[in-house]
Amino acid sequence: MSTTKTTPTADTTRTEPRGRLLLIDGHSMAFRAYYALPVDSFTTSTGQATNAVHGFTSMFLSLMENEEPTHVAVAFDLAGGTFRTQEYSEYKATRDAAPEPFVGQVELIQDVLSAMGVRTVTAPGYEADDILATLAARAQEQGMEVLVCSGDRDSFQTVTDHCTVLYPVKGVSTLRRMTPAEVEERYGVPPQRYPHLAALVGETSDNLPGVPGVGPKTAAKWINLYDGLDGVIAHAEQISGKAGASLREHLDDVLRNRRLNRLLTDLDLGIDPAADLPAGRADRAALARVMESLEFRTLAQRAQRVLTFSDAVEPGEADDALTGPTTDVLGRDLQPGDVGRWLHRHLGDAGVLLGLDVVGTLMPGQGDARLLAVTDGRRALAVDLADLSADDEAELAELLADPDHPTVVADAKGVWHALRARGLDLDGVVADPSLAGYLCRPEQRTYDVASLAQRWLGVDIDALGNGEEPAQGEQQSAFDLEALSADDAAPAQLLACARRAGVLLPLQAALDAQMTARGVAHLFTDLEMPVAARLAQMEDAGIAVDDAVLAERESELDSRVTRAAESAYEAAGHEVNLSSPKQLQTVLFDELTMPRTRRTKTGYTTDAGALADLYAKTGHPFLQHLLEHRDAIKLRQTVEGLRKAVLPDGRVHTTFQQTVAATGRLSSTDPNLQNIPARTEEGMRIREAFIVGEGYECLLTADYSQIEMRIMAHLSGDEALVEAFRSGEDLHRYVAALVHGIDVEDVTAQQRSHVKAMSYGLAYGLSTFGLAKQLGIGNAEATALRDAYFDRFGKVHDYLEDVVEQARRDGYTETMLGRRRYLPDLTSDNRQRREMAERAALNAPIQGSAADIVKRAMINVADRLEALGLSSRILLQIHDELLLEVAPGEASAVEEVVRQMMSGAAHLSVPLDVSVGMGRTWREAAH
């Protein structure tokens, strides 16, 4: 922001201000923020537009940082009329309705302000400007300095020697300081007479017409000559020329304008500015929640620096709620045996719950642990692992591997990899706060210890370090470690490690209570924790890859990229950078004169979806080759990423993410093995590179057939759909026959394809419009197909209706196993947000139940293999598919285990059909 701190105007009769009050016109600045930032760049993953919220919040934090107000309030307009519209119905009548993406953002701004401890003020029948003028007048009477932030020029009449208006001249980032001198210089009249000028000139934004032919210079000259508007009106007959005649003809308009643009300074708000509007202390946990829901990571960090929080620890104060354990930081003077003696002395008792934090590389196949902190809640140890003697490391290894020492570890799977790389086994993990936090709030984006502590304990770990440096020989609280300088024995990273360890036990206790209250504690102990343990083993094993095959695929795709580019150049008539949106816009819309796509701030979109739609309309060869070029590049990038991910052991070790998808599904990263196409020839050729590893006989793949549809049949109880599964016929052909009222053998390929899309579309919350677009048919035909479908499967329709209404009442959906997804937007007044939440409500129980069943199957298969003493192992879980590496001579036994455990993972009213295949490569094992 370009503002500088306000220095009160010299006034020998006024003492030092008793405080600085910042007043903000909420709606005015929200609209400014909306138009300053593009909607497309500020939209959450759930589709909620947040550009106005982001711009407003950024401006507010800048004001708090730059102006350092001691008191704050934000005024908002209320829906409905005011005394001004009662007098003049055309007042502001020409303003357009709020843009659809803006709707609902004011409420979100108010949520942010509430979490920041800022008071918002409204007054029925009056505008925000009247509230600001009233508060500004009363605050100055109390000897306060006032800043008014508003984009409404009517606010200039509040300007005095002790009240400055911050007026936006560029979005909400550049504000002009309107002092008495600045107002007079720009408008030719002092602030108190600015509304006189506006009455004569009029205000277009308020739909207040002025005197025709009278501009600001003429109006200012009259006002100064005749000592104000009253004087101008009194001398109207003496003003000559066309301007004078126009004034006399429109005197009623001038008088009306003056009545309406006068801001009230005497509203009965019941607010004493000095006593009732102190700059509040923010609620750290509430602010963390609202910022995370808005996906404002950078702004959240900025708010932590700028704002004062209600849980802030003053220097010298003890934090009675969370003092943390006494911490011994062993560093520079560490001697052999120190760690072992410490562990025996303080953590030797079996059965005591421990908190553990590790700093290092938390990745499978290439992990490394550097720093470690462990605590029982009373005392804690923080140590650099590089400083340990062999004996001390052995003592630590014994503690970590002892299942009689139950341990709480955030991201336990990653920590397991890091410690394993140092030869340390972690076998006592009983709880992972990251997974617990995910079960409680699956829509959040981060589950690290710092975020969880803010969200559930209201604790900022980094801020809890304001104590005095301890005297020689004294210990420190885990939350008092900031007092140590960089030159002390413990580096900053080790101190942070100790703080995180210190918060783990109270954090897990809080999350245990939350999981119990939300009915998901059983999922934590019976599903997510066991899954994490199995995923760690799968990641550690990895999957063997034939790099020669990948190199061949990469070369093929290079050639395909080149051919597609050359064909595109030929179709365009010249070379063009196919990766440049600007150049593509020129070729598509100027040179080839194709229909324009959706407009963006940089022109017309050239994203894949828009180009695919454009190709469907035009069939132009340039688009055909452009789309082919993009597809080949995407596949080549996949192959390049796989080749880079192959480790010296010749295997790829992906990382499975448990806390990303709100439905409970796993995702894969570093590399992403879920983005390899499974139903295209190109994708299958890439899968040829995944091979059985040395010492094993073959790969086995097993997946569920149409699991989402089976779950929908079970949950809806639709007899016709249940019978479709029991018939033994091809499901989608059988359903198509029912929908169209024909025999199964008469169903065409297109009819089967359309009904298949309909069935899965319903399970994934696809709208009729979306179905029409996907199938390339009209909305009317899609509606007719949907109606025919529901005529045959009426209980499916009833189930889909009921699940949304139930979620609207409860605030969440549930899977068959009780996994919840909270959807507060189901009751939103914003249609876009509400409809997106409704689609999520349709999707979550079905997709979430499928994810839960696959997880349970994975646990059961792995447990059974171990119980039978088999050496075969699970390597991957990709959506509904398990991939195993089969040891010599175990193929038959493994197939039996897989079929039995997967088909028995859930009891549905239709059978869970499992398909199994085997082969030397992932492709050969397909079925």
UniProtKB/TrEMBL annotation:
Primary enzyme class: transferase
Catalytic reaction(s) noted: DNA(n) + a 2'-deoxyribonucleoside 5'-triphosphate = DNA(n+1) + diphosphate
Chain ranges of the 5'-3' exonuclease domain: 19-279
Keyword Cytoplasm assigned: no
Keyword DNA-binding listed: yes
Pfam families according to UniProt: 5_3_exonuc, 5_3_exonuc_N, DNA_pol_A, DNA_polI_exo1
GO biological process, one term: double-strand break repair
Documented EC number(s): 2.7.7.7
Domain DNA-directed DNA polymerase family A palm intervals: 683-890
Keyword terms of this UniProt record: DNA damage, DNA repair, DNA replication, DNA-binding, DNA-directed DNA polymerase, Exonuclease, Hydrolase, Nuclease, Nucleotidyltransferase, Transferase
Record-level Gene Ontology MF annotations: 5'-3' exonuclease activity; DNA binding; DNA-directed DNA polymerase activity
Record PANTHER family: DNA POLYMERASE I (PTHR10133), DNA POLYMERASE NU (PTHR10133:SF27)
Family per record: Belongs to the DNA polymerase type-A family.
Function: In addition to polymerase activity, this DNA polymerase exhibits 3'-5' and 5'-3' exonuclease activity. In addition to polymerase activity, this DNA polymerase exhibits 5'-3' exonuclease activity.
NCBIfam families: pola, PRK05755.1
The protein's name: DNA polymerase I
Species of provenance: Actinomyces respiraculi
Gene name of the record: polA
